[in-house]
Write a structure and sequence with these properties.
333 residues, alpha/beta, TIM Barrel, 8-stranded parallel barrel, 17% strand, globular
Length: 333
């Protein structure tokens, strides 16, 4: 063959491949999602092997471990006792509640770690929805936002570095930003769940938090969250959501899920000048875990390739339950 153009020249050795690599993973790219409950023991989540609901003491040690591995941000998710769940989700803004207590404790024990929180009603609601539900089964947008503002302020006052509105109510980013600024929390950032799709990949997560929609004999309850989370068939809608969130004051825009929505990550990275985050969600985690436990795939190689795909698509940050394992593998490499 007579060819002066041979792309394989740049693939010939490991050193050359590293020299021209377009994207690289590092532990600082990861945001580590952690589940916490108000118990005195850790409890493995059956659908997520190796992932636990942590007690506060165990969580502190886990966060210290994550810091030592190079991870610089965590996001907290609470498993709330059923006796604290109400139709209005008022426990979400209880200053003595689980998440504010955890934040305060972490800021004393691991002050350097950035803490992101989740803002939505579903962990605290006896209906299992991210917003208030009326008697006819409608999700109430503006009434929900009034509660989310209180939740965000409670988390910010406890010491959260980033607020993560995951509810997908219209206008909630702007309302939360104004409320934070008005109350002196101008330095608290917002990582907005900008393009959060109504996805089947959330199953293990909802099991971990018991946050799926529930039957209620007193009123109609929507069986899914499709009236506020985005339609998986839609891509252009993500441009609208990201435009609104930027205008309303979001600092970082998130796409959720990640693996099946790489095209959305790519589009928003090209469309926006804000950093893009990808959520490598529970269903994606569990599929890799299940296949690796069967011996069908090499877990390390598949995880690192998957996480790299988010970077290649344009994500600056990756929320992943693989975070600690991946950080450890990267250090080994």
């Amino acid at each position: 063959m007579n060819s002066i153009i041979r792309p394989r020249r740049l693939r010939r050795t490991e050193a050359i491949r590293q020299m021209v690599s377009e994207n690289k993973l590092s532990p600082e790219d990861f945001i580590y999602p952690i589940f916490v409950h108000d118990k005195d023991f850790k409890e493995e989540i059956s659908a997520m092997p190796g992932i636990f609901r942590w007690d506060i003491k165990g969580l502190i040690e886990e966060v210290k471990r994550a810091w030592e591995l190079g991870i610089r941000c965590i996001v907290l998710f609470p498993k709330v006792d059923d006796n604290l769940k109400t139709e209005d989700g008022a426990e979400c803004f209880n200053e003595a509640g689980l998440i504010p207590r955890v934040i305060r404790k972490l800021k004393k024990e691991v002050p350097q770690m950035a803490i992101m929180t989740d803002v939505a009603l579903d962990p605290y609601s006896c209906d299992g929805h991210d917003g208030l539900v009326d008697q006819d089964g409608n999700i109430l947008n503006d009434e929900t936002i009034a509660i989310l503002e209180k939740q965000a302020l409670t988390q910010a006052d406890a010491g959260a570095d980033f607020i993560g509105p995951s509810d997908m109510m219209d206008g909630r980013v702007g309302a939360i930003r104004k409320s934070l600024d008005k109350n002196g929390f101008i330095d608290v950032g917002i990582i907005s769940y900008t393009a959060k799709y109504s996805s089947a990949y959330y199953g293990p997560f909802r099991s971990a938090l018991d946050s799926a929609p529930r039957l209620n004999s007193n009123k109609l309850i929507p069986k899914n969250k499709s009236s506020y989370q985005m339609d998986p068939a839609n891509a252009k809608e993500a441009y609208l959501e990201s435009s609104l969130d930027q205008f309303e004051g979001a600092d970082i825009l998130m796409v959720k899920p990640g693996l099946s929505y790489l095209d959305i990550i790519y589009r928003l990275n090209n469309f926006s000048n804000k950093p893009i985050a990808a959520y490598n969600v529970s269903g994606e985690f569990s599929m890799i875990k299940a296949a690796s436990m069967k011996g069908w795939i090499n877990e390390k190689d598949v995880v690192l390739e998957t996480l790299l795909s988010f970077k290649r698509a344009g994500a600056k940050l990756i929320l992943s339950y693989h975070a600690c394992d991946a950080a450890n593998w990267l250090k080994e490499n």
